[in-house]
Amino acid sequence: VDANIVPIEGKEPGEQNLIVLLYDITEIRRLEKVRTDFVTNASHELKTPITALKGFSETLLDGAMEDKEVLKQFLEIMLAESSRLDLLVNDILELSKLEQKQVPMKVEKINLIEAVSSTFQLVKQKAEEKKIELNILEEDKLLITGDSSRLKQILANLINNAVVYTQEGGKVEVTIKKENEYAVIKVSDNGIGIPEDEQDRIFERFYRVDKARSRNFGGTGLGLSIVKYLVENLNGFITVESKLGLGTTFIVKLPIQSK
Ligand code: ADP
């Protein structure tokens, strides 16, 4: 709390009064911290692939490139690290655009079941490799208005996470139903789950329950922050329910008729 103390003359001669102004700056401080943490974390995340690129290219120039096998292996690693850098920069830019509300939301008719089916196509191969079953449960037929590519971006992130954080032989299910003026889309998996005390934090930028694991799966740690922004920009809500070791459900509520 910041305070300002202003002395004022009282009614009686010689009487001194004080006005004490208290400002609640917790929210301002919190936002400042979010921003500085973001810069620190982003720099740290960017450093990892940059360090790898530098190290491998130096080693190659120091003579390792004479060996064709090593050359190929190192170049492949460098390509993978460059792709990671690309993903990170794209996500960082996307997040900052969303934050500045520079992303116009279109108003189109969206058939939810079609949006979910086409998103399933994107993860189909990964799901097949892990023998994960993909299901859609359409409790209500829903046509909503909103930005269709943004909705697909939300679905792609949630469904991809569900496949990534579920063990072989697991199940991912998307349920669509109507609740008053909202379309409710639930993305459920029976995967590794999220510890209760971390469930609030997963929407924070770069927050991961298991950093190493998420990086290995190619995650940037920004997906859910982007999803949350998108859902809110579409005037919706997102929540999570999860039991460690049993699975996770993300619940997205979007207005059926967007304003
Ligand atoms: P990432 O790129 O690391 O997946 P996200 O922002 O998409 O970043 O998710 C943040 C973290 O939330 C993940 O690192 C993971 O720990 C956790 N998480 C997200 N979705 C799931 C899920 N379906 N099951 C278990 N954990 C999840």
From TrEMBL:
It is found in: Cell membrane. This is histidine kinase. The chain holds residues 333 to 591 of 591 of the full protein. Residues 41-258 form the Histidine kinase domain.
